[in-house]
Amino acid sequence: MIKANNPKIKSWLDIPADSDFPIQNIPFGVFKNRSGAGRVCTRIGDYIIDLAKVNDLGYFADLGISKSVFRNNFLNDFMALGKKTTSAVRNRISDLFNSRIKKWNTRELVKNFTHDANKVEMLLPVKVGDYTDFYSSIEHATNLGKLFRDPKNALLPNWRHLPVGYHGRASSIVVSGTPIHRPKGQQMPAGAKKPVYGPCRLLDFELEMAFVIGKESNLGQPIKTEDAENYIFGLSLFNDWSARDIQKWEYVPLGPFLGKSFASHIAPWIVTMDALEPFRVKGPKQKPAVLPYLQYEGEKNYDVNLEVLIQPENSEGKRVSLSNFKYMYWNMSQQLAHHTVNGCNVKVGDLMASGTISGKNKNSYGSMLEISMGGKHSIKMPDGSERKFIQDHDTVIMKGWCEKDGVRIGFGEASGKVLPALK
Ligand code: MN
Question: Is 0.70 surpassed by the pTM of this model?
């Protein structure tokens, strides 16, 4: 067992019982300090722990990490240290706050390096290089195939043979809490003879998880499925905003473009693969058998509960989906093996998103397109208003958490408010 994952460890910090951030989590992020500079941090309970300060005080001295790694606007330099070092940092943080380890005088110094999580601003954790979005939930791909093509042949012929994906846009990935404007673009309304231009009318979320690359691969050298997880630093929540009307008109034949590239929200925390180790589960059986380069051994899916809420302005929110990352047909190792099988290399900070994560029943669909059946049905909000898609001033909130042996590892939130389209 990874030392820091031991469910028996208790912290001397006060941690709320339902916290996403028990001492067994120790995710990594970046916060803005009082002088406005980025600092690499972790979170335990409601304490943000400034790792630059912890490093300055010598607690990581034996790990030989330079100051600039933590005095940094992004996690990239930290991730690039390699898992041997980043795992050692996580284990050390666990020791520093473990109630049974009294080797260090952290208790006296805690005020010097902690902040109230409710009072600090979290920054975009990763400087995203390339962003790839997959389409790996069989339930989602089937639902969309039924809506847009042939209900009898919902999946296209390639779907069960390779993890379908496309290259997305990295520049518009923003951290949770950043408001976005409704996008504008070309649409072809039903029955119209020529396209119109204007604010998107069918604005949608996509419930996804994203993994972050923490190790570079070489151009020309594919990553094997058995090696793939060594390249993955950790996971975060991801809302891949989608303008369905823009998407529908533009996507033929080269796939998603402006209907996707206007914004995506990521949670401020990257939960490490180490922390997720206890939550491995078996993936769904793949039929027909996949090609040898996509075959894998062991449990490569992860049991992460996922939730989506819509929060209208000045009114109560409503949960519109409860899904789980374990439903993914194609796992991350297969996605990475496929991504690099042609020799394409990956770099530290690259982001790969799962694709919309839908479950089998309609309470578990990961997009409004599926929840409203293409706009046929609406859902009632607590204030009496109805939703088929996302309206101006709505905030979409995504949450995720794993639970086992009395330990809850949470991902925080990926939340974003939609402002009206700019004039
Ligand atoms: Mn997507």
Answer: yes
